[in-house]
Predict the structure.
Amino acid sequence: MPKLPVISGKELITALKKVGFVEVRQKGSHISLQKTGLSRDDLLELS
């Protein structure tokens, strides 16, 4: 099985924003993203 490519946090956030996620809040290096149309339970938190 091939290894997955290594990407930075900035690259991940940029890719998620391109597919419809929006930044809900940020505290320090922690960021919460939510996709429009999903409930609050479907919140993606990255640290």
Q: What stands out?
A: The mean pLDDT is 83.
